[in-house]
Write a structure and sequence with these properties.
Helix content is 29%, strand content 25%. The chain has 336 residues and is of the alpha+beta class. It is globular and about 65 Å long. The two termini are 21 Å apart.
Length: 336
């Protein structure tokens, strides 16, 4: 069957939809695997032969399959949750979940393919505490930061920052709502999110609550604008986000919906090189990096999302052609 690309995602994913369209236009037919179809709507078989696993996974709805030995590239895009028969008892369901996770994780580890990017590398790259250390060691500026469960330490840092301090969620800004749904929570789950939150004289008393859970605090960095830097292979696409033009986006542009102005920009060579290096040190072939540009023109690293969004940038700036860059990377399979 020749060149074969596997896109691992779920049923609702505009990024996968777009890439499949682009790849087909380029003469390549990928296989889309929605994880929610595993295992009930797929058929998996594999055998160990001569030190390698052979076999295939077939999507039952359309009969299309990926032969493991013919896969050249895998895009780990937006995997959902496995789906099991409705009549399983709770312990049976938990066992089925563990067995399926064990099987599929073992399969991903055994496939000798080009990944964008391997799920283990994505997982390792997702820890903000380690990201900041790594970025600083690569020469990127980072904000002063503490992580603590000690209210006195948090208050002392607030004073060190002259009252210019923000709180950030370490894991899920949507407060683990999806994990609760997956676990079978039946009570209504409120839709809430926690943006980057300034700590001020009016709410500093809330620092007493940090004993309950580790909290990340950073010095509030003055901004001229912000950057979303998308690394695709060795290519760097930088978009300036003029977040300071709207009051509600000055601290966190991601949690408001004004009509922000965006424009494509060229990064200084050293900053672009450090963004690529940061991505590669994690074994990633894609990264979405958030930077601040200060009024003095300095670049400050905030975080890297190892599996972030990029279509919202291309929809506003079609000339970027991020989808074509991703398609070219997958088609090259690491040989570009």
């Amino acid at each position: 069957m020749g060149h074969r690309i596997l896109i691992v995602t779920d049923k609702v994913d505009a990024h996968a939809d777009r890439l499949i369209t682009v790849l087909r236009a380029q003469g390549t037919e990928p296989l889309r695997l929605n994880i929610s179809d595993v295992p009930v709507s797929t058929t998996l078989s594999m055998a160990l032969t001569g030190g390698d696993w052979t076999g295939s996974i077939r999507v039952d709805a359309n009969g299309r399959r990926a032969e493991f030995g013919e896969l050249t590239s895998i895009w780990w895009r937006k995997p959902g949750w496995f789906t099991f028969p409705d009549d399983l008892q709770p312990q049976e369901r938990e066992f089925a979940m563990e067995e399926t996770e064990h099987c599929m994780s073992g399969l991903w580890g055994a496939l000798d393919c080009f990944w964008v990017s391997h799920p283990e590398n994505i997982r390792r790259a997702g820890y903000k505490i380690e990201q900041l250390r790594r970025a600083a060691r690569l020469g990127l500026g980072v904000p002063r930061t503490v992580v603590t469960t000690d209210p006195d330490t948090a208050r002392a840092f607030f004073d060190e920052c002259s009252g210019r301090m923000v709180y950030k969620v370490l894991s899920d800004p949507y407060l683990s709502a999806q994990r609760m749904i997956r676990a079978g929570w039946t009570d209504p789950i409120p839709v809430r999110s926690v943006p980057t939150t300034p700590i001020t004289a009016e709410n500093v008393h809330l620092l007493d609550n940090v004993r309950s859970v580790p909290c990340l605090f950073q010095e509030l960095v003055d901004k001229h604008s912000e950057l979303r830097v998308t690394v695709i292979g060795a290519e760097v696409f930088a978009v300036e986000i003029l977040s300071q033009e709207h009051e509600q986006t000055r601290v966190d542009w991601r949690h408001a919906n004004p009509d922000l102005r965006l424009r494509a920009v060229q990064l200084p060579d050293d900053v672009a090189a450090r963004c690529v290096e940061l991505t590669r040190t994690y074994g990633l072939n894609f990264g979405a990096i958030d930077l601040i540009v200060t009024p003095a023109g300095e670049y400050v690293f905030l975080e890297i999302n190892p599996n972030g969004q990029f279509l919202f940038l291309q929809e506003r700036l079609p000339e970027l052609r991020l989808d074509e860059a991703m398609a070219a990377l997958l088609r090259a399979g690491g040989n570009g």
